[in-house]
Every structure is written in C-alpha cells, then in structure tokens.
Design a protein that fits this description.
This protein has about 160 residues and is α+β, with helices and mostly antiparallel strands. It contains four helices and seven strands; from the N terminus they run E-H-E-E-E-H-E-H-H-E-E.
C-alpha cells in the first residue's frame, strides 16, 4: 500500500457547497448559500488512495466526491496573501482527494466536520502532480478535468453572482 503524497503537517481545508445539483439533492436551496462554504476535515481521516473504505456501522448514507487537493511547499503563515505571481513559491503540486461523507450525520446536524472526519474518510493520491517554481507553479496543462464514475449523473458547478 502506498502512503498519501503528504505524510507530515497534514491538514484538510475544504471549499464546499459549490455544485448546484449536489446542493439540491441534499434538500437545500443554493440561494441560502451566498458564499462558498469553508470547512475542515480531521487530519486522521487522511489515508492512501488504495486503502479500503470502512463505513462505520451506524452510518447509513455514505457519499463520496472527487476533489482536487493542493499541496503546499511550506507553511502558510496567518495573514499571508498569495498573489498569482508568487503562486509557485507556495504551491508544490496538486493531487486527487476522495472526500467521503456520512450524510446522515452531516446534514441533519449541519456539522461538516463530524460527517466528514471519520478515520479513513480522506483517501489522497496516489501521487502528486508537481508544479514548477521556475514557471510560477503553472507549468503543464492549462486546464485540468477530474471525473469519478459513480453511475449517477454528473454534477455541474453552482453559478454564483
């Protein structure tokens, strides 16, 4: 089994409520979310991409989403503003993250952390796609497309004004 691409100083900082169809299928109204939601997951949920997912016995509604994970080169001190021209100083690469959620815990209580932080609910990797400091972190394809085959309809990003 491979380890996740980052093994020290791990932290999940996440943006949520960004897909209209996902909001609607959760029984929520996109109009109630004027801003993108920021939430965290416990570092103990981070595991390797090929680790088995274990659903806790009391969890009935296990869900998953593919995400793009950013891997930083070094600590980002509080109050730091990262400008596009210095992105390569901070961003080491990107990787795939499987964001697992216990929706029957998360949604009724409005608790992202509780519903997303079970041990093993954050498979990461298998490998990072490394960015180049010499090209300000933007080397490689000009756009990246991720997909996850689930047998369900594809989700589309939520439009925000």
């Amino acid at each position: 089994m491979l380890l996740p691409p980052v093994t020290t100083n791990q932290q999940f900082l996440c943006l949520g409520v960004s897909y209209r169809s996902h909001v609607e299928e959760s029984g929520l109204d996109i109009a109630d979310f004027q801003f993108i939601t920021v939430f965290t997951k416990a570092p103990s949920c981070i595991t390797s991409a090929d680790a088995s997912v274990v659903r806790p016995p009391h969890v009935q509604l296990l869900d998953y989403e593919i995400e793009l994970g950013l891997v930083l080169r070094r600590d980002l001190p509080a109050g730091t503003t990262v400008h596009p021209d210095s992105l390569g100083d901070w961003l080491a690469g990107v990787t795939i993250v499987n964001d697992l959620s216990a929706r029957d815990i998360q949604l009724p209580q409005g608790q992202f952390y509780k519903g997303k932080s079970y041990r093993g609910f954050g498979p990461v990797g298998p490998l990072p796609w490394c960015c180049s400091e010499a090209t300000n972190g933007l080397a490689g394809p000009s756009s990246t497309c991720t997909s996850l085959s689930t047998g369900r309809p594809a989700r589309t990003p939520a439009a925000r004004s």
